[in-house]
Amino acid sequence: MSRTRRRLTTGSLVAGLLIPLLSGVSAAPASAAQLNAALVRTVDLSALDPPLPDPSGIAYVPSRDRLLIVDGEVDEMPVFAGSNLFEITRSGTLTDRGLTNPPTKEPVGISHDPGSGHAFIADDDQQRIHDFDPGPDGRFATADDVRTWFSTGAFGSTDPEDVAFHPQTGEIFVLEGTDNDIHRVGPGPNGVFDGVAPSGDDVSTEFDVLGLGIRDPEGIAVHPVRHTLLVADFTTRRVYELNREVMPVNSIDISASGQTKAAGIAVAPATDDPQRLNLYIVDRGVDNDTDPDENDGKMYEMSVDLPPVPNLAPVPQAGRDVASHLTDPLTLRGAVRDDGGPAPVAVAWSQTGGPGTAVFADAAAAVTEVSFSAPGTYVLRLTASDSALSGSDDVTVTVLPDGAPIPLNVPVAKAFDDVEQPPTGYVDWLGKSLNIPNAGGTAQTIGLRFAGLDVPPGSTITSASVQFTSARSGSAATTARVWAVASDDTPTFATTPGSVAARPRTQASVTWSPPAWTGAGQAGEAQRTSELKTLVQEVVDRPGWARGNAIAFVMTGTGERAAQSHDGGTAPVLHLSYVAGGAPPVQPVAFRAAAHFAGNTTSASVGVPSAVQSGDGMLLFATVNTVSATVTGPAGVIGWTLVADFTTGSARTLVWKKVAVAGDAGTPVSLELSPITKIGLQLVAYDGTSAADPVAAVATRSDTTATTSHTGPAVEVGTAGGWLVSYWADKSSVTTAWTPPPGMAVRDQLAGAGSGRVTSLLADSGGTVPIGTAAGPTATTDEASRAAMVRVLLAREP
């Protein structure tokens, strides 16, 4: 089922704030206070003549003591009377009206600059902010207006729901609905809002507000006395007060209004006491896409007691996790947000974890170089203090041996970066699932974009794949063909027809036929695309490729798998590794071969597969059905090292490792048993493992009771490029079959005979595993049993 589209609209809330006209800044530390707003009055905007069925933005004009309200949907409805901008008194009397089209028929947000007298209007269809000079008549949206605009899409705001002018700083704050962001825009040296480079010299800073609990922001305003931002969120039924650095000050409950879809907010004198300031909030009510004849717009005046703005703890940002070579210089690019008091912020870097020592060039600078004494995973902390309060943030640095591929894990970062384009051509970006490649019986084109790839020109791509997380089960035969977009720096997708399908594609393409997805929340091999490194390489080899550019992929095909989208909780992630230009690529780990033996014997033997080559890493797994048996060996092939030996009930499991040498291939490996014992013996070999030691880590687990679900142990993956091998074995008289975990590559299965027989399953990750905690996979048996489980992390050749 394809994702549900909704019209990109903005709304304005009207609520009142009960505060003194002068408000100080206290020194007392505080988190965002939880406040309740009281309803003063409700104005039925739908009852005005002409009516406002979908009020989507509101602003206060002090010089006229009037409220300006825009309606971004009224032109699509039967009640439209040639106006989409309305001027009303604070008590709700209509005093003037106008039409913003041209240049915009989709005015979804509005703000007013009391200094210049201009109005700023947000348009989420055009991705623009329009600047309206009212002209000689002093009225907005009339024929003598002087109208200019700048693009919000140029700085990443593809759904500008509202806009707020900050009189104290001369900045504009653009509220981004789809990605829950606020963009702070300064006019640049020329003092004019003309867009970011190359069209102008504006400066934009993006702030994420989803982490503040804001779920669906549609209205924003600046408090004229406190100089704070007020953000209206109809989903949480709250107005969030933030400072200029988008740090939380207060959270205001507006549920007393009974709002349905609060869409815009303004601050103006109270109707019952002009010495106080109240909130004014507009409510769109039912969307006209749901009911084309609806007419239910409202405005609420609300009051709330706001305490003095407190000192807020600095918010340091240590940067995103990064990987680097041991001898390569690494620059930490920390940053700090603060409210400016009570003292200048002091920062300090420190090390909280790692196998060696991190040495900072200047631990008191947010941006500084760091070096490390040994490879491994380090945790570094950036702490910031304003002398009264402090905050900290951590970054994980993976230090690799020189020459090892550098891993990158880049998620889809924006709602418009994972999209579906159906045959109509209009791009669909909303919803919690991404239907790959088709939606039911509807053929479509999938677009995926990953921004900010830290891959230098001239690099060799050693691996690349996109990891999805399943949104639901699906087993229909599915095949997708995947291309990369042939562009130096792919821009984000848009709703315009052909935004995905019309983009140029790489000559190289790959096919991906995912197996069945058996439920929601799965993110394993089954949800990972085929190897995409040839596609990525073609883009990185383009003359215009630069470090930090974006790459995109296009998919078409047959069938359907439903993955979670950016809006669905777990965004698709591009897993990529590369070797910088001039450095030879390192051979990745790859499955070579497997063999097994099962029987009731005093001498168990399995031959080393003929495909095994010198330098391969080999693992030998053995499970015997009694703990009293004596196990001697391995013999025939020398050089084995025991890495695990444990019991599960009355069964015993042993694991050995070895680096293959010339002559091992084709040679039997044997274990001697006394007395006669039932055994399952499996040998598996891998290419590309470390010649010094093919095993980086081993973890074991035993079921304590009989069950059909057998979850292996978790493993900490500390370096890039490793593979995980998983082994399950049971002693049972009833087990006949193992079902592997979804997404894992099965390498060998073994089943003995008779009562007390050994059955086992050998599988691996099918590719490199990300750094971090690898949760234990669950295999199932057709009958309940107690299983022994082993997971081996293979080390890649450095």
Automatic annotation (TrEMBL):
Keyword entries, A-Z: Signal
Q: Which GO terms describe its biological process?
A: carbohydrate metabolic process
Signal sequence residues: 1-32
Pfam families in the cross-refs: K319L-like_PKD
Region (Disordered) residue ranges read: 495-526
Q: What is this protein called?
A: PKD domain-containing protein
Query: Whose protein is this, by species?
Result: Planomonospora parontospora
